[in-house]
Write a structure and sequence with these properties.
With 624 residues, the protein is mainly beta. The protein contains three helices and 56 strands.
């Protein structure tokens, strides 16, 4: 029978049984049984269609022991298919079993060793009450009985997450609802027997980031894999987690199923980190260079033990391990974030303290582009005509950090002195790339307080540097070598030691302005060993006498504009200047003072009158 409807007997008939010889083959249509129907050959082999036990006959149906394979079976209320009591009856249902109504149906018996068996090849829930030999029961009793009822299934077809993971779980914590995976046929029947019922099933994370922890591979028991107690967990948060179950089953190389998407939320915070973004999408502020003048905002981020973002809480901020020019004020904290601004070259780490403490990598402040020149050595005090100590000019950024990274820079030096100025290096100078400084010395012929300037316009114009220096005369430099009492007159005309010699005279003749003890000119050969006041000396010359005017003078007298004037007189009233160039007798070891002489003339002519020279004196003057 392939279609249509065939009714056998009547629900109200009480006639004889219908007997059929041969095979009842049903592949479609509807076969309605309303009375006993006893095929005596191959029984029933159905590959489709439906057999309906209809009406309310007290007994009927297939009442002969044997094997019956139905596809779909419908039992009306009050009808007894008469399968109970048949010791070898097997009712094999490949499709569905439907009960119309709730009247108890003896289908089939379940008591004693002679009970028949029911073979259900369906996933359909079968409602209703069944009785066998007057013993009422529900179908669930058959399914859980001691083998009287066999639940059948079709060919293995799929895996099914019958219990998906918890919709939300905490990172690193076992799922509150562990997944259950079943091995099923196409109709959703669980494969409870055979090799596939004990297949190995593996879970993997196929959507979302993180690691699926716990026991991820289990062997099925009667087609069921229950991951309870296996500690399944995922360490990283996200709302897109999907698991895939995979197994290798008979006839199917790989069979998989995916779970619904579920969410993993962060665990409790266990750490604080200093990061680059407030919403947790940033990274830890690593060791880096910070250009002077630039600012960076950093954030206090709390995370759980797996690194999942928990929050951006308010923190206490500070700088740690500060070196060189970095100071605490370079970091301005504002609750959940702080701003670090580099100023002077140095290093520090940024610390945020919440319930935990987190540090950034070392922040190294580096110079910005050069914007100015600076003279880094202290102002010099130097004697007229002498070279100064080394003076250093440096290129710097706007914060005063030395800049070594810029290209070669030309530096031009100048002075506002009206004297003769010399710089030791060729002017202009060059600050080469890779260094920040260049040094020079300064020489000036005029005493005073000149200002020197270092300027640069190449490769770009930057701010110049100026410094006022002190150029002291030799006389001023000489004064520095002595210790004067408070209130002593150190001017050229002063006489602090009270010996009647002015400071200028003491300077000119090489004596001590603070000690009035008498000294005299002494020399050994050509080495001057002692300076003193001018003196007349008689030098033996053959059998006669050679009178000379002897005095000490400074070797550098001409360059410092110090003038010595030798004068002779016959009466100590009228004086005549000598025109004779003095002759050097001896010079001291430091080449500072020398003893010289001028011979007494035989006669002088003051006012045109010839007189004999008897007195001499030495006058000393200096340019203003």
């Amino acid at each position: 029978m392939t279609g249509g409807a065939l009714t056998v007997g009547s629900a109200s008939s009480s006639g004889s049984d219908f007997s059929v010889t041969g095979t009842v083959s049903l592949s479609g249509g509807l076969l309605k049984i309303g009375h006993d129907y006893k095929p005596t050959a191959t029984k029933v082999t159905a590959t489709g269609g439906t057999v309906q036990f209809f009406g309310s006959a007290g007994g009927g149906g297939f009442g002969i022991a044997g094997t019956y394979r139905f596809y779909n079976v419908v039992v009306d209320a009050g009808f007894d298919p008469n399968f109970d009591g048949q010791t070898t009856t097997i009712i094999a249902i490949a499709g569905s079993l439907t009960l119309n109504g709730t009247t108890a149906v003896p289908f089939p018996t379940r008591d004693g060793s002679t009970a028949g068996s029911l073979f259900l090849g369906t996933s359909q829930q079968v409602a209703g009450t069944y009785t066998g030999n007057g013993e009422g029961t529900r179908i669930s009793d058959y399914l859980s009985g001691s083998g009287r009822v066999t639940v059948g299934f079709g060919a293995v077809n799929k895996l099914e997450f019958t219990t998906p993971p918890s919709s939300s779980t905490v990172a690193g914590v076992a799922f509150a609802t562990p997944p259950v995976v079943k091995i099923q046929d196409a109709s959703g029947n669980t494969i409870t027997t055979g090799a596939d019922s004990t297949a190995s099933v593996t879970l993997t994370l196929v959507t979302g980031t993180g690691t699926l922890g716990g026991t991820v591979t289990m062997t099925a028991v009667a087609g069921v894999v229950d991951f309870s107690g296996m500690g399944l967990n995922i360490n990283l948060e996200g709302s897109d987690k999907v698991l895939r179950a995979t197994a290798t089953l008979a006839g199917v190389s790989k069979t998989t199923d995916t779970s619904p998407a579920f969410t993993v939320v962060a665990a409790s915070a266990t750490q604080t980190r200093v990061e680059t973004a407030a919403d947790g999408t940033g990274t830890v502020v690593s060791a880096r260079n910070v250009t002077a003048g630039s600012s960076a905002t950093v954030y206090a981020i709390t995370r759980d033990t797996y690194g999942n973002f928990v929050g951006n809480p308010s923190a206490t901020w500070s700088l740690q391990s500060k070196t060189v020019g970095v100071v605490g004020g370079d970091l301005v904290g504002g609750g959940a974030s702080a701003v670090f601004t580099g100023h002077l070259v140095g290093t520090a780490t940024i610390r945020a303290v919440t319930s935990f403490t987190g540090d950034s990598g070392a922040q190294a402040v580096t110079p910005a582009a050069a914007s100015k020149l600076a003279i880094t050595t202290s102002p010099v005090t130097v004697t007229v005509g002498a070279a100064s100590s080394s003076i250093t000019v440096q290129r710097q950024d706007s914060f005063g950090n030395p800049n070594t990274a810029d290209a070669d820079r030309t530096v031009t030096l100048s002075s506002n002195s009206t004297g003769t100025v010399t710089f030791s290096l060729a002017n202009p100078l060059m600050i080469s790339s890779g260094t920040s400084t260049v040094s020079f010395t300064y020489t000036d012929s005029k005493a005073g307080s000149p200002t020197i300037t270092a300027a640069s316009t190449s490769p770009t114009t930057i701010s110049p540097a100026t410094q006022q220096e002190t150029l002291q005369s030799l006389y001023q430099a000489w004064l520095v070598g002595y210790t004067f009492a408070t209130g002593d007159d150190q001017s050229a005309t002063g006489n602090p030691d009270g010996d009647a010699w002015s400071n200028l005279q003491e300077y000119a003749f090489g004596t001590n302005p603070t000690n009035g003890a008498a000294t005299s000119i002494a020399y050994a050969g050509v080495l001057l060993t002692s300076s003193g006041p001018p003196q007349a000396a008689n030098f033996a010359s053959g059998t006669g006498w050679d009178y000379r005017a002897v005095f000490c003078r400074r070797v550098s007298y001409a360059s410092i504009i110090l003038t010595y004037t030798v004068q002779f007189s016959a009466d100590n009233l009228v004086w005549v200047d000598s025109t004779v160039t003095p002759t050097v007798l001896a010079t001291d070891a430091g080449n500072v003072m020398q003893a010289v002489y001028v011979r007494y003339p035989l006669f002088i002519r003051p006012g045109g009158v010839v007189k004999k020279a008897q007195f001499f004196r030495v006058g000393v003057s200096t340019a203003p």
